[in-house]
Each structure stands twice: as C-alpha cells, then as structure tokens.
Amino acid sequence: MKKIKVLSFFCAFFLCVTALTAPAAALSRSASDILESMEVEAQAALLVDADTDVIFYEQNAYDTVYPASITKVMTAVCVFRAIEDGQLSLDTKVTAQSDCWDGLDSTSSNANIREGEVMTVEELLYCLLVASANEASNVLAVAVSGSIDDFVTLMNETAAELGCTGTHFVNPHGIPDDDHYTTCYDLYLMAKEAMRFDDFQTIVKSKECYIDATNLSEQRHYYNTNGLLSNLKYSGYVYDKCIGIKTGSTDDAGYCLLAAAEEDGQMLISVVMGCENPVVDGKTQRLQFSESSRLLEWGFDNFSTITILEENEPEGTVPVTLSDEADYVTVVAAETLEAQLPNDITADDFRKDINLISEVEAPVTKGDVLGTMTLTLDGTEYGTVNLIAANDVAVSEVLLRKAQLEALAGQWWMKIVFLVAGLVLLLVLLRLLVFRPKKKSRYGSSGGSRRSNYRGGRRR
Prior knowledge:
This protein has eleven helices and 19 strands. The chain has 460 residues and is α+β, with helices and mostly antiparallel strands. The longest helix has 22 residues, at 412-433.
C-alpha cells in the first residue's frame, strides 16, 4: 500500500504542476485541413476562445507589432481597475489639465477636449473608446495617477501582471514610438481583462455616443470607429455577432482591429494587426474589418468541443501480487477530458502516452492511482489524467504472511541473527561431538581388561 500512496502523491503533484505551468498552445496546422486552409491578410493575427483561452488560430501572434490606438484598451483597463478599487467612479468629474495635449497635435484623433473643461469619467471613457480621442487618454491618465508618466508606469506594471511578455508602453494613447509595442497574444490578455468589466463592454459595443454639453463645449456626437458594429462610419462591414472592441491605425502600425464576438454564449476574441487596405475599383478595401469578421465566423463554424477521453475508459492492466483471486487489475481513466478542436479532428487522432507502475501489492482498492496518461496530438499536449484501479483486489493472508517472512528473512539484521545463531549451533555441536569428556569404566581404567574379584569357593 505504501507504493500506491507514494505514486498517488507523485501523480497528483505532477498534474498540479502541469496545470499551473502549461501555456496556451495552438494545434499544429498540419494536423487539420481546416487549419491548413486558413490564412489572414495581415501582418499578424490571433483567434482565441475567451472562456477557455484555447487558441484557434495564430499567425505571428508573438511577434512585436505597434498597437496604435488599441493602446487605449490598456488605458481603459487601468481606469476601470481604479473604479473597482474605489479610487474613482463613472460619475467622478475631472478637469482637463494643461498637459492634456502633451505629445499630440490637432491632426491626431481627438474630441477637442480643452484645458479647464470638466467632464465625467464615463464621458471621457466614451471619448476614449468610441471616438478614439487621444487627449481623453491623457486626461484619464492624470485622473488616475496624477501624471501621465506615472500612469504609463502603471500600464506597464498592469501588463506584466496580466502575463504580457512582449509589451512596453510609453504613452496612454498609442502615438507611434519605437519603444511602444506589443504582440497579438498580449493584446488578447488585455482585452480579456477589459471585457471583465460590464461598463467597458457597454461602451465598446456602442454604435455611437452623445457627450453632454460641458462648461467649454456644446453637445458632442461621435460614431464608433469599429466598422463591424454599424455602417455609420464605414459601410459594408457590419458583423452582427460583434460586441467590440477597438480599432487602431498609424503609418507604422498599419490598420488594426481588436474584436470580440458572441454566439450561443461563446465569446471569441480576434486580433488582426498590420493590414494594408488596397484600393479596388476605386474603393478602399478595409481588411481590418473584413478579415476580422471572416476569422471570427471561421472560428464559430469550424470548432467544437469534443470528448477525447471518457471517464472509466479501460487503459491497461497492472500485475497484482499477494492475492489468490486475481493476478492483475484493470486501470481506467479517472476523469473525462475534453478539447476544443477543428471539426476534422477526432479522439482517435490522439496519441496516448501511458505510464503505469510495474506491479502492485494486494490489497488494491478501487480508485487507487496506479499511473498517468498524457494525450497529445501532433506535438501539442492536451492534458494528463490519473489512471486508477477499476475494482478491489483482496489480499491472501497466506501469501501475505509468506511474503512478510521472506521480507523479514531478507533484512540485513536478520542475516546477522541467522549467522550468529548458526555459529552458536556449530559451537554447541563441536562441544558435544569433539570436546565431550570420556566416561570412566566402572571396572577400572587399566587397559580396558576386566579382572574378576570373585572369591567364592568351589562346590563340592
């Protein structure tokens, strides 16, 4: 039983470590015709299930790219976290300071917010995420951290906390800078965190917004820059499953879109970066929109959750000793394992790497962990499960006692005991057989001859 307990601990430890350290992985394109046939017209692209973190598609997803105004998603994350912590509220009124246009000019995307203008945090967020106003980023940065530089430090700290390893920010709006960069996968991590906030979702799926008149401006009206949401700004790209998130474009970054869509409770997040928008028949083709909706719809249409391993499915046997009722026990999977896969992949395509102990001593209890099994497909690992005993196996008391005696006899100290006992027995025998003293004859000791001492007379 000690063997079983030790193995159970090892298997449980291995499974925990695997779960904690395994990064998100994508299936190799060669394993699926569906994957092999997909290509996005962009510098880099990514499609992920937001609930499971399963990557459906990746294309240069970990290469450095310029985020442009998608930077504002991280700015919003920091603002909503400050609201969550009670530092601010959506109704908090903020006065734009003299640094609200630092690093900007009037040609960059803006909402014409001026120094001294008073707006609520919520209004500034709509300007940030719907109108993509750069100066709104600076105003919110000061409201959260006191200065733009301190806010940028907060952005980088938050990115690291979220697990972003290829990101560095130098401003809160995305104006080009060689030291301002990210990756598709990091943008996914930021988007997933942002979509955790209901108010963020409400804002980024708004087709348009109205900003009430302020002390320095009449009412403002803006259309969302995301062409997947409406035809108000860009015509012909509406995708009815889209629920956000943010556009971005500069000469260095190209045309980019971080998008989210929902169908039947499933949320997919896509990242399409560095598109070139060609002119065809006099009309500009906005590939950041068309490629994003194509990628999202491809994900909904071509992926399903399938069972790749059934709980209690037999996976081999382990020899059993010390039992007279069975000489082996069947092992079964301890749990069901599922995976989101292209529809042309089945459970039979997976390789099972089984690791079982060489034998087990009875008694065996149903559920005892006797090994592990790892399922892989084309080099991608999809999970490791415990293999457990399918039934009880009773111990034979006769065989157990025999084994205990044999084990006892094999102990080094018992060997010494046996050796000492043998030597003692040998000495006793030697004493009895070799060194035993001779008995004296009752007739004397002279040569062993007998002389009669009879003095009787003869009969007459």
